[in-house]
Write a structure and sequence with these properties.
alpha/beta; binds inosinic acid
Length: 180
């Protein structure tokens, strides 16, 4: 309905099978690295939720989850890196092992802001796990400990990632091709 431009799906960049296999590998690695601890997985809404829920079901260690919601102050289409907290974590992370679980790291500005904010709360450790890494677009270096896939500098949708809030439900990652 309406004048909304429906994007074509473009080509599938990462299939459902490839995602499932990589999630299992990452979960195995995290389970090994955090053996004997109970990390808190922090998901940044909304894009990170699909990855978080898949990842946690493959973890073989006890863990907790928590959520944050942020919005970037944009200047036009560019992220400025100044972030407004819309919803904060429900628990104190001081002394805890924290893993930020992200959908994609693009410029890195949002993640850098969140990372510094969480570090100021004095967790025992803080690592970052992202499903997708759009390295070519990085504007600030953020240490990333676990990466699912590196993706080219194109706009991707699916597996939590949206185009105007749609298409998060696609079970694969696709390059979005606007419908002319
Ligand atoms: P950054 O601060 O530039 O790293 O922005 C990261 C956020 O921008 C991600 O958490 C996504 O919500 C969004 N984003 C970046 N690239 C894409 C994309 O290709 N598709 C959909 N959302 C994206």
């Amino acid at each position: 309905m309406g004048a909304a431009v429906e994007p074509l799906m473009g080509k599938v960049l990462i299939s459902e099978t490839e995602i499932a296999r990589r999630v299992e590998e990452l979960a195995a690695q995290i389970s090994r690295d955090y053996q004997g601890t109970v990390p808190t997985l922090v998901s940044v809404l909304k894009g990170g939720i699909i990855f978080l829920t898949d990842l946690m079901r493959k973890l073989e260690i006890l863990h907790e989850i928590d959520f944050m919601s942020v919005s970037s102050y944009d200047s036009g289409t560019q992220t400025t890196g100044v972030v407004r907290i819309l919803a904060d974590l429900s628990r104190n992370i001081e002394g805890k092992d924290v893993i930020i679980v992200e959908d994609i790291v693009d410029s890195g500005l949002t993640l850098d802001y969140i990372r510094n904010m969480l570090l100021s709360r004095r967790p025992k450790s803080l690592k970052i796990c992202t499903m997708l890494d759009k390295k070519a677009r990085r504007r600030v270096e953020v240490p990333i400990d676990y990466v699912g896939f590196e993706v080219p500098d194109e706009f991707v949708i699916g597996y939590g990632l949206d185009y105007q809030e749609k298409y998060r439900n696609l079970p694969y990652v696709a390059v979005m091709v606007p419908n002319e």
